């Protein structure tokens, strides 16, 4: 380039019209044109490649993915799993009924607590009894199935008598049939796996159930301070029990509380649909014969 610059400086005006200069200039312009065309082609090619990706991303953001974790699932062996869940439910209600502090509460307070905590208590019972279940993908129900599997709500069913606390209204399953998603079921299985990995003892399960049962944050409660004290006592008893039996008890206490946080994220309607909808469907079919 330096030599070429010196030549240009020393050359007269006719130099620019020389054949060599014309050839060099023509080649330079041609090279520049080719480079510009290549850059334009590369830019167009990249733009064409990005368009489907951007379109897919916009569709994914706007509509969500209908596959994977959003697919609907049902129990693979409903007779076995539902029977096991029903047995755990009976044990759970018996546990609640036999808690002395619970019996001392007014009946309307008992009702509020049971209606709120039956599902997490049931899942804790599934973990304690090591109940395993498998699911399979299922199709969306038709409108006829929604109608046939919907029951009317009876206000009289909400009353608590002196017998063991009746199941709260969510188990009546009055809402249209909506099978749980794979992600919702995976949340349940994730909690069960977490409990099994911690090898929770019988006493620890009892204290965890007490923490879940006596929830002072529920709307409709009147004995809030009393229930809050019961929950605090359950947590203190759990902490004391862990301190006596486990080294690094604070770490274990924290892990158990993490498990409780996972439990709170599980929807009660998902539990009802998964384990008790099949029973109601079978009853409806038997009654229609």
From TrEMBL:
Domain of life: Eukaryota
Region entry Disordered, spans: 27-55
Pfam family for this entry, one: Hormone_recep
Low complexity bias locations: 39-55
InterPro entries documented for this protein: NHR-like_dom_sf, NR0B1/2, Nucl_hrmn_rcpt_lig-bd, Nuclear_hrmn_rcpt
GO molecular function: nucleic acid binding; transcription corepressor activity
Subunit structure: Homodimer. Interacts with NR5A1, NR5A2, NR0B2 and with COPS2. Interacts with ESRRB; represses ESRRB activity at the GATA6 promoter.
Protein name: Nuclear receptor subfamily 0 group B member 1
Originating gene: NR0B1
